[in-house]
Amino acid sequence: xxxxxxxxxxxxxxxxxxxxxxxxxxxxxxxxxxxxxxxxxxxxxxxxxxxxxxxxxxxxxxxxxxxxxxxxxxxxxxxxxxxxxxxxxxxxxxxxxxxxxxxxxxxxxxxxxxxxxxxxxxxxxxxxxxxxxxxxxxxxxxxxxxxxxxxxxxxxxxxxxxxxxxxxxxxxxxxxxxxxxxxxxxxxxxxxxxxxxxxxxxxxxxxxxxxxxxx
Length: 215
Description:
The protein is mainly alpha-helical. It is built from 9 helices and no strands. It has helices at 3-11, 14-33, 45-61, 68-73, 79-96, 110-131, 137-150, 157-162, 172-192. Helix 5 packs antiparallel against helix 9 (172-192) and helix 6 (110-131) runs parallel beside helix 9. The chain is globular, with a radius of gyration of 19 Å. It starts with a helix and ends in a 23-residue tail after the last helix.
């Protein structure tokens, strides 16, 4: 890793991000083990839906840029680094999280976990472009929560498309929806990057206002 790549990784808080993904995996393994899934694989649905959502939240937060002006004025284009960053973290999460749900590949096993990881990461990447990295978790959380509330065992291709986070791993329509979400998010983030965010306190963006004195 050259100095530029190392600086890029440090600016995106790589060590805390890796630690958070490891903690998410540990929580998913513990949660799946407490559900007695050997009795009924469908008991894994909460883990299948929530663990990728937590990982996507971590990934989305790491998409921020600490120096947006430097990014936009750099001599070399940033899009390859953005693509590698998003793809690497998503691939790492897709490798780690299935450890929580080994077995039952046709129902709620590793394929379903990988699919949901890709889909949720794509939603967070898209949100980072329009809302910024700090709020990139919001659309994914809202979507998965709404799908969980609206889904009540509905069947058919239409249900598999909109309720893809809750589908078994062998559902082609659910895979199509998740891969589309990831491809769209990756393309948007790679091309545009995360929306710039003000690093300072609120009053720094208000013309004519001074920060309060500290006595």
